Amino acid sequence: MTLIDGKATSEQIKQEIAAEVAARISRGEKRPHLAAILVGHDGGSETYVANKVKACEVCGFKSTLIRYEDDVTEDVLLQKIDELNNDEDVDGFIVQLPLPRHINEQHIIEAIDYRKDVDGFHPVNVGRMSIGLPCFVSATPAGILELLRRYDIPTSGKKCVILGRSNIVGKPMATLMMQKHTPGDATVTVCHSHSTNLVEECRQADILIAAMGQPNFVKADMIKEGAVVIDVGTTRVPDATRKSGFKLTGDVKFEEVAPKCSFITPVPGGVGPMTICSLMLNTLKAAKHLF
Ligand code: GUN
Q1: Maximum C-alpha span of the chain
Q2: Where are the domains of the chain?
Q3: What's the Cα-to-Cα distance from 207 to each of 59, 230, 250, 267, rounded to whole Å?
């Protein structure tokens, strides 16, 4: 069994990005610039955005954090998005989700210029990805593909089962795993809360990607011997023995599943660190104006 070290891989990629940025700066090119809009004080969102800002520093990017209180109006956010769309110094920006209930997330996402949508959530990017055109791919699926690539994990002709059908992970992951590409060329099945044969499907998977947000859902008896298991779950389960008060818990019961796997990602330290790294790669791509 090989443990897929997302933390080490992401550190290496950030160093590669920093070297490329240094070379660009020495040629007199502009420093890549990522802006982030954060609304409210949700603990998870605060941590994610702080980590994104930190990653920008490591990569040599400029970053701008724009904060609003929970009661910000949709109009104020749309105005700021318009400003960022037209700000030539900003290469890409994100609006951290979730947003308060009075704001329509889809309005916000669609207001972002798709050429600056480094989260890859805009319908233009989603559509371009689905037909294999240059685009921004959302960070978590892009990070998983990068891990499969860097660990030389064969995907062509393999049966890949994805648990979860979210717009951010499950759906784009399915599209990418079936694309005519490496990694890709897999036979993909997507299972979700209405699937009746989920366990049977999992047992046949050469590659299982668990992204349904149910801690410890995937057990050893659902795994084929030698499978590759990618755990996207990051649920905060209360744990009084920890300073933070919670334990980040994956969708896979790691201790019993790991011995059956050829490769597996841990939680934390697997997919999570790769997600931020993909955002950095997307920002560098935005700075290059490749499409
Ligand atoms: N909330 C959870 N994941 C993400 C992400 O990848 N991007 C943004 N903007 N918000 C998120």
Answers
A1: 58
A2: 27-113, 139-272
A3: 31, 8, 16, 17
Q: 97 CB under 6 A from ligand 1?
A: yes
Catalytic residues: 52, 96, 119
Residue identifier of the C-alpha nearest atom 9 of ligand 1: 96
Bridge partner list, 189: 161
Please report, as a single letter, which amino acid is at residue 134: P
Name, in order, each residue with C-beta under 8 angstroms of 238's C-beta and a sequence gap of 6 or more.
245, 246, 247
Q: What is the pLDDT of residue 291?
A: 86
Q: Is the CB of 139 under 6 A from ligand 1?
A: yes
Using the mean position of ligand 1's atoms as its centre, give its distance from the Cα of residue 270 in Å. Answer: 17
Could you tell me if 146 and 198 are in contact, meaning their C-beta atoms sit under 8 angstroms apart?
no
**pLDDT per residue over 24-48, tens digit each?**
999 999 999 999 999 999 998 999 9
Query: Could you tell me the distance, in angstroms and rounded to a whole number, from the CA of residue 234 to the centre of ligand 1?
Result: 13
- Model pLDDT for residues 45-71, shown as the tens digit of each residue: 999 999 999 999 999 999 999 999 999
- CATH architecture group of domain 139-272: 3-Layer(aba) Sandwich (3.40)
What CATH number belongs to 27-113? 3.40.50.10860
Q: How far is the CA of 280 from the centre of ligand 1 (A)?
A: 13
